[in-house]
Design a protein that fits this description.
Blueprint: E1 20-26, E2 29-30, E3 34-36, H1 48-51, E4 55-57, E5 60-64, E6 70-73, H2 75-88, H3 96-109, E7 122-131, E8 144-153, E9 164-168, H4 186-201, E10 206-210, E11 218-221, E12 225-230, E13 233-237, H5 246-257, E14 262-265, E15 275-282, E16 286-295, E17 300-303, H6 312-325, E18 336-339
Parallel strand pairs: 9-10, 9-16, 13-14
Antiparallel strand pairs: 1-2, 1-3, 1-8, 4-7, 5-6, 5-7, 6-18, 7-8, 10-11, 12-13, 12-15, 15-16, 16-17
Helix pairs in contact: 2-3, 5-6
Bound molecules: pyridoxal-5'-phosphate.
Pyridoxal-5'-phosphate binds near residues 59, 224 and 246.
């Protein structure tokens, strides 16, 4: 079929593709991999996913590289993180090999939706697992559905790589101190909607959450991890209430390779006053530079950019990570899975 997609202007939204890949866990085992052309699912109205939040997901990307090859970035790390999320809310872990096979199949079958090299767009891969068993009492399911859907998404920085402002709102938490923050489960995102909406209304791109126990340390942004540059060092929060971002993990490696010292530790809010750069990092943006952080309730404004432009370290990290994803520089750590 002939298709004209305006790759550069695609939003970060759902764009229908040809196929999704499904697999069900029943009778204590994963069944056959199925290819579906339907974008709906038919499940029991009492399913645990609908009532008790037994739902988890992942998010990763495939790219068309400079050499025309298709690369999926850090496939195995996403498979491993899904297993941690599944254990966290008593769901059935998806075996790493099954996760990989289904992602690769989804990418291959939807190859015509992989944006061309140079467009800045990519194919977003969204693995999703839900509990199927009907339950009225609060109890885990024993049957699960695992789906891989893919959708092309546009470049994150449409008007170019640029700063945005974020805010701290002390009346909101997205997770509890020993709660579900380190897992990628739907409830965390439901809990962040209210604060996120309020922040957007005030003109901020995201909320920077504080640790929910003491409200002293930085945690992460609604949909991304956080790092700052202080005295030339890359500092990023250590916390068990944040998602272990695979982008952040990759940036830490790249920073060390650039000779930048990396510290993963508690970061007190006030330290922001001594930072020269900050960014939100994740699959969507790589790193999204922050111009200013406003602590709404205390009225403190932290300025993270003197000239309104992304700082030199963030720019270097952004370019380095993108170059690996697009096959422009050698993938010395084996982060890419080439889809053939
Ligand atoms: C809450 C949260 N933190 C961090 C991230 C960034 O993680 P990653 O770099 O693996 O995409 C995401 C997005 O996936 C997220 O939803």
């Amino acid at each position: 079929m002939d298709m004209q997609i305006d790759w550069a202007n695609l939003p970060f939204g759902y764009f229908p593709t040809d196929y999704n890949i499904r697999c069900e866990f029943r009778d204590g085992k994963w069944g056959p991999i199925e290819v579906s052309q339907s974008d709906t699912i038919n499940i029991h109205m009492a399913a645990t996913s609908l009532h008790y939040g037994q739902e988890l997901f992942e998010g990763l990307k495939a790219f068309r590289g400079v050499d025309g090859k298709i690369r999926i970035f850090r496939l195995e790390e996403n498979a491993k993180r899904l297993i941690e999320s599944a254990k966290g809310i008593l769901m059935e872990p998806v075996p790493i090999e099954l996760f990989k096979e289904m992602c690769i199949k989804a990418v291959k079958l939807n190859e015509r939706f992989i944006p061309p090299y140079g467009s800045g767009a990519s194919l977003y891969i969204r693995p999703l697992e839900i509990g199927l068993s009907p339950r009225i009492g609060v109890k885990e399911a024993d049957e699960y559905l695992f789906i891989i859907m893919v959708t092309p998404v546009g470049p994150y920085f449409k008007g170019g790589f640029k700063n945005t402002n974020i805010c701290i709102m002390r009346d909101f938490d997205r997770v509890a101190p020993h709660g579900t923050g380190r897992w990628k489960v739907g409830g965390n995102y439901a809990a962040s909607l209210g604060a996120g909406h309020k922040a957007h209304e005030m003109g901020y791109s995201a909320v920077l959450y504080l640790d929910p126990k003491e409200k002293k340390y930085l945690d992460e942004c609604g949909p991304a991890n956080f790092y700052a540059i202080k005295d030339g060092k890359y500092i990023t929060p250590k916390s068990d209430s944040i998602l272990p971002s695979i982008t952040n993990m990759s940036l830490m490696t790249l920073a060390r390779d650039m000779g930048i010292e990396v510290e993963q530790r508690h970061i007190a809010v006030e330290e922001l006053a001594d930072c020269s750069e900050a960014a939100a990092c994740g699959t969507a943006a790589v790193c999204s530079p922050i111009g200013e952080i406003d602590d709404i309730d205390t009225g403190t404004k932290y300025i993270l950019s003197k000239d309104g432009k992304p700082g030199p370290v963030t720019t270097k990290l952004y370019n380095a990570l993108n170059a690996i994803r697009l096959g422009e520089t050698p993938d010395i750590y084996g982060w890419n899975t080439i889809v053939e």
